[in-house]
């Protein structure tokens, strides 16, 4: 399916959904898309069952990912998708979304805007307009903006958010254009939020170890707080499956048993099995028994335990006792 173009996938999905449902979807598409999809539909004579199933599954996965991102952002989506689909497939879905979905979502300019700028733009808007825009924003940011309104307006906006069921794409497009025009007084509409800790971490994850060490060393001298933030994002707990078995065993010997038990709470079976395969049968039995007696656990506590495990991994890596894979190949010295 990697070689099948998006328009053809859309056409096959339309065929699968049937003419009645597809007709309703067509009404919501731009004219240029309608023409392209219609052309593909007209030129498809037969769809293989396995091709159809693959496209339906991809559609479901993408919808799940979109929902997770809207609910809690990229990191939240990655966490849930890792558990549901496995690390590799989750990464593929997120990558596809980054390419086609995030830029197409309505009110993207509001999602990227500084909260103070957004507050200035929305403060004089009608409650129904504010409610609609907040529905498309990150929950944390929407809450921050809502809290800025007078108390009597907060309840009215909240009520409208709770009663919105669907809105015409034409109405959304008109409102979006009005908001973008108003933002021209505060921000440059042609700019995007770029860079930051996450971007730097992603870049450093793809460079060689020596390059990474040089950059981190400089950051530790000039901006130690930034260096710590970047280091915390360079390797996640889920990435432990990329380690060599011998390296994993070295890590597990250094990790506190309570931290390991807490870190495994709620992770995918793939990660659990990977860890268990690198422990003795007796250790696995004890760990499983302890985990069975664990009650409900705060997500923050799990994440803190995972960070402590990651800290052990990075310490061993810095000492040269284990090897973390990097984007560029290391030079082999004989």
TrEMBL record:
Residues 4-106 form the Flagellar motor switch protein FliG N-terminal domain. The keyword Membrane applies. It is a peripheral membrane protein. This is Flagellar motor switch protein FliG. SUPFAM superfamilies: FliG (SSF48029). Residues 115-188 form the Flagellar motor switch protein FliG middle domain. It is found in: Bacterial flagellum basal body; Cell membrane. InterPro entries: Flg_Motor_Flig (IPR000090), Flg_Motor_Flig_C (IPR023087), FliG_a-hlx (IPR011002), FliG_M (IPR032779), FliG_N (IPR028263).
